[in-house]
Amino acid sequence: DRHRASELNDLICADSERAISGSLVKTFPALAFAILRLHRARSGENPPRLFAGPEQEYFIRELLAGAASANLYQWPEQVLNASQTSAFARELRDLISRAIELGISPEELKVLSVNQKYPLWEAASNFYTNYRELSGLAHENAFDSSEMIYQATIALKNDQEFREEIRSRHVVILVDEFQESDPAHRKLLEALYSDELTLYVDPDSAIGRFRGADPESIPSIFDRYRDSRGNPADQITLTLDYRATQAITDLGVALAQRFSFSRMNAHRLRSCAGKNFGNKEVEDTPKPITLAQCESAHDEARVIAQHFQGKHLRNGIPYGEMAVIIRSPSTRATTLRRVFASLNIPVREEIQSLPLNKQPAVAPLLTLASLAFALAGKTLTTERAEELLPNTLVDELLLSRYGGADFLTLKRIRATLINSRKSDDTRNSHQLIREYLTTSVVDLEWSEFAPIKRISDLIASGIKAVRPGATSEDVLWALWSSAKDESGAPLAQRWQRDAIEGDESADRDLDGVLALFEAAARYADQRPGSTGNAFIKQLISESIASDTIAARAQRPDVVSILTTHAAKGRQWSVVAVAGVEEGIWPNLTPRGSLLGSERLVESQREGSATDRTSREYQLSALAALKDDERRLFYNAITRAKSALIITTTVGEDARPSQFFSEVAEILNVDEEELSAVEAGIYLTPARLVGALRKEAESSDSARSQEAISILAY
């Protein structure tokens, strides 16, 4: 991903003795963007811009809605109603992206619908045709990442002079994680490279098959990429592991040997480089791998937290060199975070972010901005006020980060308002609050109703910012700069102070607001002269998270909690792989979607039969899915350098997965050893001081003196 690319580029620049112009490290989409921008500049065309995922999905939903009444795309009757949902638009976007990556045109998709006996692809091909025609008109110069790569490849292939110019700028090309590349990436690389091409490949760690990565076809790349004299690429097998201890290396190799679809094995005959080869970072520990069966997710989190705390206090390993890896976002991450916090262990969740409109610090700003545009310059009737501010929304605003109320405060406010009504006033508490929120002059003691005051002031600030020509960014900024905490100080300053002091929620809130303004600025740049609340409306309707390049708060010495996908390509001294339970890891729930994007990918794999029945496809997909899950697990355990703990839970609704059992078998760990791992006593500073004081008062003089000595230290 581009965050990892940015980090690697920074490391290279820091180690270089010369000034480096531009970015040396790029993702395939970033490389395609740079190539296409240069080609369009030579042709006198406007520069390209990225058609971001949420924006693309919003456009697809508009096209589907506009064609629904006449069923212009000829969707089968059984999916016609579903075609108006966000989930359907998301699947359609995914199908189109996979088709572009695979080089499949609308006409070819229609043919495949017959060959693969998948009739939904025929209607999808009708939409695909219309989408390609209209997206260029409605979103001029905008390309999603798949289309960007396709257009860059076409530019290189069709313009010999331009290709030579680009090749002269990229004399040496190094491709890391090549096993994650899809057919479109490989076609771009074929058009770009000359002789100096090095591909780094680990087929065992490929985790992107659902996006088109094809690790099984890696052996064929040596013939595919030839030098100018027609010679196939040299294959060099690396047999020394410079990351992990021998025990962790051996475990990774043993698990990789169990892959079903593997055509490469030589790279698995490897050993730990160790200190004899100058690898000083790898330290052999008495027990590098620990397996733990726990009674609950809470006990599991305690075992991991105390394991990490012991490594930190006894071995001096920084918390920044530790990570907990889980299969996918879940409540387990919340449990881990809370237990770690109880031990005063700093953590950072790197779980995939929510869409902006679902983030606690952003959603209220979008709501308030939308209200400001709706209320500015208009006479507000009671009916219109109820429409704009339904009861649930009133509560959400008062309970938000910006209102600052809690449920007890809100209950007290309602009771006070009801009790203070005039005898002939029959309005309920929501109606009273709604009036106070939208009326500039009200007869209330604001010290008692601070949440109402804060939201009312924000709405007034937003309305004031809605001047002729005002943009969404103008109104959002007016709201953000007017937000106050309970003391009347700017909320931004409060969050910044809390973030510096280690408050993770303040970190996330500031990151969310920063991403919001980055998205607003990008929208304004892409649509010069755009005014009004178009950006607000689009953002509120989005259902997937948008990528962002906004800088995020960095706290170096913290434990990372992240998914195995986010851990790809990274390493830590101590790693815990948590939640290795049946049904979770591996997760063998079929990934089949209504529109069959994964089936389209499978149909184009090297050696794939074109006439498989649905049953044959399902069996093949299940076997491939199991291998994918094993690769995710392999990727997680091989992030550890010196210590690894693998945990699971055992109970009425949970039992260890086959992966956990396989590791126990490989390590020859019996059931008695697994059950013996328990969480010890919490070792927070406060608890430790309390225990020592109790010992200091004990009748045992030796223990008492020892406790006093420790307290004095």
Automatic annotation (TrEMBL):
- Catalytic activity reported: ATP + H2O = ADP + phosphate + H(+); Couples ATP hydrolysis with the unwinding of duplex DNA by translocating in the 3'-5' direction
User: Which keywords does the record carry?
Assistant: ATP-binding, Helicase, Hydrolase, Isomerase, Nucleotide-binding
Q: What sequence ranges are listed for the domain UvrD-like helicase C-terminal?
A: 256-569
Enzyme Commission number(s): 5.6.2.4
Report the record's Gene Ontology biological process terms: recombinational repair
Q: Which residues form the UvrD-like helicase ATP-binding domain?
A: 1-245
Q: Establish whether keyword Transferase is in the entry.
A: no
Hydrolase in keyword set: yes
Q: InterPro entries, per this entry?
A: DNA_helicase_UvrD-like_C (IPR014017), DNA_helicase_UvrD/REP (IPR000212), P-loop_NTPase (IPR027417), UvrD-like_ATP-bd (IPR014016)
Q: State what protein this is by name.
A: DNA 3'-5' helicase
In its UniProt entry, the species of origin is given as Candidatus Fonsibacter lacus
